[in-house]
Hints:
The protein is α+β, with helices and mostly antiparallel strands. It has six helices and 16 strands.
Amino acid sequence: MSSTSAWIQINQAKPHEPSWKLWRKVCALWSLNGKLYEPMGRWLFPANQLRRKWPMYYDHDTGDLYVRQNEKFARCVPIDAIRFSPISEVDWNPSPTSIPVHARQAIYGNEWIPLIPPTLPTPGSSTLSETFQEFITTLDLWERELFPELSMTIDCYEFLEIVNEQELDDTDIRLLTVSDGSDVEGSMSFGWIIALPSGRRLARCSGPAFGPSGSSFRAEGYRFPFSYQILGPLVQILRCITNLVCQNAD
């Protein structure tokens, strides 16, 4: 049994054969004969927050297994270390402590043997970084290496405050970001700077760029990580407009 959509409707024509061919190639990157090379991790959201209906659920709070039967569920209780036996048919909705599971029926009888994953991760209180440099230390290594020579004239919180509270001169532009990248025989480097329309500089960064083949286009792409980490939230939260002025000959 597979899952079904809870409320999503798709209005799209069936993919043609070239699309299916590409999809099969992609699937071959992470699976073989219908099995994943690396198993998926645990569920990040409880069953009541999922957008699909699943045939079976396990409730970590009650310890019961629920098997969908038409519009109701068969409530199954544990009878030993691995088997669950149905005891009643109930009207039940996925709870905050339940998650979808896979189960098979026992060889004899009507019992179910589910594969019960670990409990859902408990949301903890996240600690906000005091500076952007401190925030960088929390990133993965490949992201930290994108900020080799970062210099900010103010901390990230003052950065947001200044951008939001500045006086605008007949324009909606709140930030200017200028970047450039270069390539000399495969040795790439990049640099970018962010300033207010008044000319006040807020942050700059430069460093080497890496890749299998050198190009100024690839080097200049190193400006986007900062845009993602800082300018993205600015655009969404403050609804400001940024001008990205890039010089590239490629």
